[in-house]
Design a protein that fits this description.
single chain; 636 residues; DNA Primase, Chain A; five-stranded antiparallel β-sheet; four-stranded antiparallel β-sheet; DNA_primase_Znf_CHC2; zinc
Length: 636
């Protein structure tokens, strides 16, 4: 008889020095916010039995199919097969990574995250304290909003009348929190001082400027319509001001530019913010596209007409960071440009940003002398949406511009230059059907053979790669506040068979998990999902943390695995009290079956190695295989 033993050595693992702090911070943040409050801030939530439900924003949900379990602090959309905890929801809602979601929720909970991350510790009330700047900015933005309604001043009435003349109704004034800054040098500075904020704080949050002579600070915005700029958590982080002609006339040449955009601060980076994104993101997701405009009033006018997926840049051209942010929410971006020469130039500038990002960029150039607000006001929403739908692909737009007025038969130089310009742009695009189609079009348009164009394209790509290698430097260390890449969530295979029964039992009776960590060999498990879940248990055990569902949710940062865990938790909840046998009995049976299965596999492996190729050996091997299969499929 063959003596075969099944044994294993427990894996050796090292714990990062910061791991306990990481776990403590995650658990503190998670326990300090209520997932129901976070979800209901952007979705309409209603009770259903012991839980709550909402319409899922990630599919066309006609009846609420997202379940929120307030007791367990989890959410799950069954049609989408996605779910998790409060971190998971914020990551999907805002299209951000885990550290950014952590900071967002820490800010909501009022937890100073720098104490855990080793960042610079700040003093409340100081100009380098983020919470102080958020509070100061909100105070000023709310004050400006209220002042536009102030019946006691003539200037407020002038501002209201001007806003009305621009076609903005009261509903949208409130939606965008449009306000008015008095024609005063120190209104905001005094307001903040009266509320115990220093002049340095007023300057640091971007509402004041340093005096040109002497010490002290003066208001940055005076006698203007005010457009607060919000982050994705709907917190004001900066302000933009528009000139009001009647008030500006008092100051002549000193009135300043038509628009003044807020200065960059700790809270605000022009290259990473888009006006109106916090209001438009759900419409962008549901419609699969976003329209990028050039000004505040364009966005307000579009929204007022019923066009919702609209944002605007903030005093700067589109940047690579803007592209990354937009990609989190939609693959189709329509750049809506004013009908002037400057608009055409801006289309050329942003084209190359999108080429390497695999974004479907469309360019809509409005009729000459028209901006989006004017066009929508004159022709209406339906006409605007029709021209948006017909907006050409950015590459087609560029090709049309390059070939406009070119004599294809006689102007050889112009044709060759246009082709080479297009190929240099295409060289930055990822290979695929889109490039193949464009090459065919170039061939048809310029009467060049496709093979000749492809040779030139290959040369340009080689040159670009060589330049890249020569200029390559080490990538910067990713900071907690860095603009995150678009998050891609891969599916994990579902738990099944013995693996499913094992983890259901451990969830139902956490006291068994310590034994399972020692007894279960990862090689026994049949799916990567099961192995990852066991690894999470092992990590908790090494940290001497409770081996329960709550701790697992805190430990796991992999979103597909967290979704699998929520599914498992829900399944255990639904079957609670329905089992006749005890968790201890099931666990003992599961271990026995794992052991029998491994023994059968090892016997089969040994026998296969001993047998030759004779007919009798083949028959004997078949019998062993059938016995191993019988043991594996033993009735539950």
């Amino acid at each position: 008889m063959l003596a075969i033993s099944v044994s294993r050595s427990p894996p050796t693992r090292k714990i990062r020095l910061s791991s306990i702090l990481d776990f403590d911070l995650k658990e503190r943040v998670r326990s300090s916010v209520d997932i129901l409050d976070v979800i209901s801030a952007t979705l309409e939530v209603q009770p259903q039995g012991r839980n709550f439900v909402a319409r899922c924003p990630w599919h066309n949900d006609r009846r609420p199919s997202m379940t929120i379990n307030q007791e367990r602090q989890t959410w799950k959309c069954w049609p989408c097969d996605i779910g998790g905890d409060v971190f998971s929801f914020v990551m999907r809602r805002d299209g951000v990574d885990f550290p950014t979601a952590m900071r967002t929720l820490a800010d909501v909970a009022g937890i100073p995250i720098e104490q855990y991350t080793g960042g610079k510790k700040t003093t409340p009330g100081s100009p380098d304290d983020r919470d102080t700047l958020f509070a100061a900015m909100k105070l000023v933005a709310d004050e400006y909003f209220d002042l536009l309604d102030d019946p006691r001043t003539d200037d407020a009435k002038i501002a209201r009348d001007y806003l009305a003349s621009r076609g903005v109704n009261d509903e949208n004034r409130k939606r965008f929190r449009i306000g008015f800054s008095p024609d005063s040098w120190d209104h905001a500075v005094k307001l903040l001082k009266d509320n115990k904020f220093s002049g340095e704080v007023a300057h640091a949050c971007g509402v004041a400027s340093a005096k040109q002579s002497g010490q002290g600070f003066v208001d940055m915005f005076r006698g203007r319509l005010m457009f607060p700029i919000f982050d994705l958590q709907n917190r004001p982080i900066a302000l933009g001001g528009r000139l009001i002609p009647e008030i500006a006339a008092r100051h002549g040449d000193k009135a300043g530019g038509k628009y003044i955009n807020g200065r960059e601060t700790m809270l605000f980076r022009k290259s990473k913010q888009l006006y109106g994104l916090q209001l438009a993101r759900e419409a962008i997701r549901s419609q699969g596209q976003v329209m990028v405009m050039e000004g505040y009033t364009d966005v307000v006018a579009a929204r007022q007409s019923g066009v919702e997926p609209v944002v605007a840049v903030l005093g700067t051209a589109l940047t690579p960071d803007h592209v990354k942010i937009l990609k989190r929410f939609a693959e189709r971006v329509v750049l809506v440009l004013d009908g002037d020469t400057a608009g055409q130039k801006r289309a050329d500038e942003v084209l190359e940003l999108f080429i390497g990002e695999s974004v479907d960029l469309r360019v809509l150039t409005l009729p000459e002398g028209s901006d989006p607000a004017d066009y929508i006001g004159e022709f209406g929403r339906e006409s605007f949406e029709q021209i948006v739908a017909k907006a050409p692909d950015a590459l087609d737009h560029k090709l049309n511009r390059l070939t406009e007025g070119v004599d294809f038969k006689n102007d050889t130089h112009a044709v060759t230059k246009a082709v080479d310009t297009m190929l240099k742009i295409v060289a930055k695009a990822p290979e695929g059907l889109r490039v193949d189609q464009l090459m065919t079009r170039l061939s048809d348009s310029f009467n060049f053979r496709v093979e000749r164009l492809e040779q030139r394209l290959a040369t340009l790509r080689t040159e670009a790669r060589n330049r890249g290698r020569a200029q390559r430097i080490a990538p910067p260390v990713k900071e907690l506040t860095q603009a995150p890449q678009r998050i891609v969530y891969e599916k994990l295979p579902p738990l099944s068979g013995l693996d499913l029964h094992l983890f259901e039992t451990l969830i139902e009776q956490p006291d068994l998990a310590a034994s399972a960590v020692e007894a279960i060999d990862p090689d026994w498990l049949t799916s990567i999902t099961a192995k990852m879940l066991l690894s999470a248990y092992q990590d908790l055990d090494l940290r001497a943390m409770p081996l329960d569902g709550k701790s697992l949710l805190t430990m796991i940062e992999n979103e597909p695995l967290k979704n699998a865990l929520v599914t498992l938790l829900t399944r255990v909840d639904e079957r609670s009290g329905q089992r006749v046998d005890t968790p201890e009995q099931r666990y003992a049976d599961i271990l026995t079956r794992y052991s029998e299965r491994e023994k059968s596999r090892e016997i089969a492996s040994v026998v296969h190695g001993m047998l030759g190729e004779s007919e009798e050996d083949a028959l004997l091997r078949k019998l062993f295989d059938e016995e191993a299969l019988r043991q594996q499929n033993r009735p539950k």
